[in-house]
Each structure stands twice: as structure tokens, then as C-alpha cells.
Design brief:
The chain is an all-alpha fold and 185 residues long. The protein is 68% helix and 0% strand. The chain crosses the membrane at residues 49-69, 89-110, 122-139, 145-165.
């Protein structure tokens, strides 16, 4: 049989035996096990992110409720000694910010479970930007600007984490579509 040649795939000069061992062909059961492991880890990570977001949103809701009842900026003791002036319609804006922050906890969880629900971040951004924009345009001071930017910051944080969660789910779905038949590999 000296006429039969062994087929060797192309490899770079820098390839070592270790890199060739990593390209093992997985059978159907091994592929499913890898996907399930990744899906389980992704779900655990998602639960941790949701818990973190709920804690942060709950704390921000508490601060806004504190503002509504005390009519005092909760950041005053930390950022300045002088009380910054109150902005017009501050109680209504605090209620709006509280509703926005609380909605961030409830609505995205319904997103995949209730038909027709979807978080509209552009509306939330616009509503939460009213007070910080007013503070910036009228020179209300750093304390007021930072305080009224909390809801806007919460939306940015929530939107970025929510996008990461959805991308993780999409990546797992794409991985499931990439399964191959081990007999043909």
C-alpha cells in the first residue's frame, strides 16, 4: 500500500499538538450537553443581573419617595452645604421618575411572557431627561443636576443590561442552530 497517501489538513507552522487536540468532533449528545451547560450558566447570570437591577431600582425608588415626602434633595448632605433651589413641578417630576424606575422592574420581565408588551426606552429616556435638562439649562447647580439625572442613569443602566441579557439569549439560540451531524464532520 505504498501508493496510498494519508490526507493531512493544512496547518500553520505555529500550530502545536495542543491546538489540534482542541478541535475534537463532538457527537450529538456532547453538543447538546455543551449547549445546555452554557444555557444554564447564561440563565444564572441573567437572574443575578435581574436581582442587581431590582435592588438598584428599589433603592432609587426609595430615594424618590423620600424626596416626595421630605421635599429635600437626598444628595444635599453629600454634595454641598447649601440647599439648592427647588425646580418647578418637582413633586410631579419625582412621581414621574418613581413610576419610570418602578416600570423598569416590572415591564421587561413581562416582555417574553405577555404578547404585545415591549419596553420603549426612547419614551423613558425622553421623560426622564426633562428635569436634568431643565437643571442644566437654567443653571440649577451640580447637586440638582445629579439628583434629577438618577432616573436617566437608571434607564441607561437597565437598557444596557437588558440588551446584554437579550444578546446572551440570542447567542444561545444561534449556538443551537450551529449544531452539526457528527457523522458527517
Amino acid at each position: 500500500m505504498p501508493d496510498v497517501r494519508k490526507r493531512t489538513p493544512f496547518s500553520f507552522a505555529g500550530d502545536s499538538d495542543d491546538s489540534l487536540r482542541d478541535t475534537a468532533v463532538l457527537d450529538d449528545q456532547e453538543q447538546e450537553q455543551v449547549v445546555q451547560t452554557l444555557k444554564t450558566e447564561n440563565d444564572a447570570s441573567d437572574r443575578q443581573i435581574w436581582l442587581l437591577l431590582r435592588v438598584v431600582m428599589g433603592f432609587l425608588s426609595f430615594l424618590h419617595a423620600l424626596y416626595i415626602f421630605r421635599r429635600e434633595n437626598p444628595l444635599n448632605p453629600f454634595l454641598s452645604n447649601a440647599e439648592p433651589p427647588r425646580i418647578p413641578f418637582d413633586v410631579l417630576l419625582a412621581l414621574l421618575h418613581t413610576v419610570i424606575v418602578l416600570s423598569l422592574v416590572v415591564f421587561p420581565r413581562l416582555d417574553g411572557h405577555v404578547q404585545g408588551t415591549r419596553t420603549h426606552y426612547s419614551r423613558l429616556y425622553a421623560a426622564a431627561a426633562i428635569a436634568p435638562a431643565y437643571c442644566a439649562l437654567t443653571g440649577q447647580g451640580l447637586t440638582n443636576f445629579v439628583w434629577w439625572s438618577f432616573a436617566l442613569t437608571a434607564i441607561v443602566l437597565h437598557h444596557s443590561f437588558y440588551t446584554l441579557i437579550r444578546q446572551g439569549g440570542a447567542s444561545i439560540s444561534q449556538l443551537q442552530e450551529l449544531k452539526y451531524d457528527a457523522r458527517g464532520a
